Amino acid sequence: MPKTKKYMVIVESPAKAKTIGKYLGSSYFVRSSMGHVRDLPERKLSVDVENNFTPEYKIIPSRKKLVSELIVDSKKADAVYLASDLDREGEAIAWHLSQALEIPDEKALRVTFNEITKDAILEAFNHPGPINMAKVNAQQARRILDRLVGYQISPLLWKKITKGLSAGRVQSVAVRLIVEREKEIKEFKPQEYWKITAELKIFLGDTKKPEDVKTFKALLQKFDSENVEVKNEQQAKDIINELQKAEYIVANVKKQTKRNNAPPPFTTSLLQQQASTRLQFSAKKTMLIAQQLYEGIDIGKEGSVGLITYMRTDSFHISGQALTSCRKLITDKYGQNYLPEKSNVHASNKKGT
After folding, report:
1. Bridge partners, 305 (sequence order)
2. pLDDT tens-digit map of 9-66
3. Helix 268-279 vs helix 283-295: angle between axes, to the nearest 10 degrees?
4. For the chain, which domains are there?
5. Greatest C-alpha distance within the chain
6. Checking phi first, is residue 46 left (phi over 0); if not, alpha (psi -120 to 50) or beta?
7. What H or E segment, with its residue span, contains residue 227?
8. CA separation for the pair 95, 116 (Å, rounded)
């Protein structure tokens, strides 16, 4: 009787492993790397500047036991599917795993997906590919730059300013922008101006019953048929005195129908903005919750289910399958009258998304 093949799948987190595991057959066993397993050691620069800026990676101390276990498991498998996230960081995790576990190229299979649903997972595993080294090298370049800037400029700040300060590839530029903006604010010379509003009432019926009275506020736009610009308190008082003697009429009524288009799907930045405005969430908290929603939430009988697509994106694209499911839900729940003739398509102003 032929031996049953076994396939190992490695993802970043236990939650993601749990969600993916239920969609794959018994031939697959899913393990978690708990994020990165290799990095640049912290105690030194760990970048060989004299040798083409070669990074000197080491197994993260807290991951040594886990890596040993993954090595043992990988040797039992006929193939190893590296199913980390589809962005540069995820691609780098996949590459580091292949190197740390010494997985032969023909045995290391890369799978990516934008959503953790059964159809998306099965589609990805039916079409595996190689690790995308362009993405890996992009992540390595960012990591090396972070280390060079941080480790070489921070000591200069300690010497010239004070201990404990840090410099960074991103944060130092942000500090520069903040300083320039603060200078602009301090150089701004404020100008006094006033707004005048009136609280007006309209009687909707022949009586003056409370239910027949509509109250609204109106902003003064013109005075004596000219655009008004109120520059000080005395001018405002003079205008108010004149307005109190005036009679008010409804000059015209305009009725119009406004159409509000459905907003596009969230990109990363829009998600963070809305979470901050509506919920007062920090960007870090927003992305942590989004990561959990993407990797899978236990919702009862269905078990762990991925509820959103990948949260790090600047694209408005929605898969055809998702659009079909949404249109079916609208028809089933609200009726055919509420179903648009065609799906909304939101163009992205980003190239390559």
Report:
1. 297
2. 999 999 999 999 999 989 999 999 999 999 999 999 999 999 999 999 999 999 999 9
3. 120
4. 7-140 (3.40.50.140), 197-244 (no CATH), 268-338 (1.10.290.10)
5. 103
6. left
7. strand 226-227
8. 21
Question: How many CB atoms sit inside 10 A of residue 201's CB?
Answer: 11
29 beta partners: 8
What token pair was written down for 291? 């990561």
Q: How many whole angstroms separate alpha carbon 232 and alpha carbon 31?
A: 70
Nearest CA among 48, 69, 57 for reference residue 96: 57
Tokens of 67: 């890596």
Closest by CA position to 218, among listed 265, 192, 250: 250
Annotated catalytic residues are: 310
Which stretches of 275-318 are assigned E, i.e. beta strand? 297-298, 304-305
Looking at residue 1, its pLDDT comes to 53
pLDDT band at 317 (very low <50, low <70, confident <90, very high): confident
258: left (phi over 0), alpha (psi -120 to 50) or beta: beta
Q: How far apart are CA 227 and CA 220, in angstroms?
A: 9
167-193 average pLDDT score: 92
> Could you tell me how far CA 123 lies from the centroid of its own chain?
25
Tell me which residue of 32, 7, 37 sits closest to 17, measured CA to CA: 32
CA 90/CA 312 separation, integer angstroms: 11
**Per-residue pLDDT averaged across 319-331, rounded?**
89
In 12-125, DSSP assigns E strands to 28-32, 38-39, 47-48, 54-55, 58-59, 79-82, 108-110
Q: What is the DSSP letter of 228?
A: -
At residue 19, φ and ψ (nearest 5 deg) are -70, -45
Q: Tell me the residue type at 50.
A: E
State the Cα–Cα distance between residues 13 and 83, nearest whole angstrom: 11
And the tokens for 24?
């794959």
